[in-house]
Amino acid sequence: MIVLTGATGFVGSQLVRQLGAQTELLLVSRDPEAARRRFSEAAVCDYAALSGHDLTGAVIIHLAARNNDRIGTIEEFRAGNVDGLLEVAAIAKAGGAARFINLCSTHALDTEHTDPYGLSKREGARALTALWPDGAINLYVPAIYGDDFRGRLAVLNRLPAALKPLAISVLRQVKPMISINRLLAVLLELAAEPDLSDDPWKSERFAADPVKDIGISSFVKRTVDLLAVLAVVVLLGWLMIIVALYIRFDSKGPAIFAQQRVGREGRIFTCYKFRTMTLGTAHAATHNVSAASVTAAGRFLRRTKIDELPQVANVLMNEMSLVGPRPCLPMQTELIARRSARGILRLKPGITGLAQINEIDMSDPARLAAWDDRYGAFQTLSGYIVILIRTVLGGGSGDRVSSY
Fold first, then answer.
1. Do 66 and 200 belong to one domain?
2. Coil, strand, or helix at residue 144?
3. Which pLDDT tens digit goes with each residue over 16-74?
4. Residue 197 lies inside a defined structural domain of this protein
């Protein structure tokens, strides 16, 4: 059984129409009579009566919220997005429900959004995870559209029906969005998903319409990648020669360090960097390598990120992009497994990425995989440019070595 709160809203109404033909539904509403009139074939109850239903094995999809299209105080938003959320979750947990999926807007992901909605949704998500760490999921999604569009996407309603798919495809290249059909598929996947109790970040999930490998975004990204390769060779070729000589004079060994990494779809490729560690240092994840192994030249190169410049060869060979999840070592089996579980291996790895500019490295595989998942779900051309700019401006410090 699926229990749906907030069913009379735009998203809930469309989910009810599709879910009603697939599974047993129970709708929970603060105005059950209005819900019955709208959905005559569905079972309906109010929140007070929810605890009287058999919820054993049920999946709760919580859509009810005080949204940011309403004006109110932080206390009023907390009443709906924290207290109301936890009330339903507590009833569901006590009643033996299998899973609780709390739908959240991507607006709540950005900590710079300090409006009452953003603050209350983040607080609610944290409280829900603390209340039900093994059964609750906070699913973050961007603007949702169905047969028609709401909010900022409403302008698309003016287009002829034949042009809407093309407009959506083009708009998705620069703005995350999700169709009601895609949302339904994700919700059903999460409802049937096996237990992931070994993942401390399992409560954070992200979904949007996928960006296809062909299209404006793909073409522009590849063009920018190749232009960057050309710029590095033409403008910084002299610097790379000086750096190579500096490394050779600073310590024994070659200037270029070649290492096997895990690429797209799990394929192994050779990744190139300027050598920053002493010759003979064991091949291991950077956070497992002693800081004493880093050479004097290496400390400077790592701090300035100049050690990454030889990876333009990998970009040229289309093994990497400028932006994407950082490729890991084949021996980093936990990270590979977590990335595989979240579908991240479908992405081309990058020299920099969303996790890196937010100071998240491979020392925490579960957290890194969650941030890579966030990048993969919401990737856009504009996001690609923002990550590049933040990297050039000094965002992120790269993988940290061990302090021992």
1. yes
2. strand
3. 988 877 788 999 998 888 888 888 888 999 999 999 999 999 999 999 998 877 888 99
4. yes
Is 38 buried (19+), middle (13-18) or exposed (0-12) by CB count in 10 A?
A: middle
Q: Are strands 256-262 and 268-274 parallel, antiparallel or unpaired?
A: antiparallel
Tokens read off for 107? 């607006």
117 and 126 in contact (C-beta within 8 Å)? no
Alpha-carbon span 30 to 45, nearest angstrom: 8
397 falls within a domain: no
CB within 8 Å of 337: residues ≥ 6 apart: none
**Inside any domain, residue 211:** no
How many angstroms separate the CA atoms of 311 and 322, rounded? 9
Q: Do 330 and 263 meet the contact criterion of CB atoms below 8 Å apart?
A: no
- 3-state DSSP helix/strand/coil percent for the chain, to nearest 5? 50, 15, 35
Query: CB neighbours (10 Å) of residue 388?
Result: 19
Would you say 272 and 310 are in contact if contact means Cβ atoms under 8 Å apart?
A: yes
pTM score: 0.89
Rounded distance between C-alpha atoms, residue 199 and residue 157, angstroms: 41
**How many residues in total does the chain contain?**
404
Alpha helices in 132-267 (DSSP H): 164-172, 180-192, 216-250
Asked if residue 267 is part of any domain, the answer here is: yes
Q: Are 107 and 159 part of one and the same domain?
A: yes
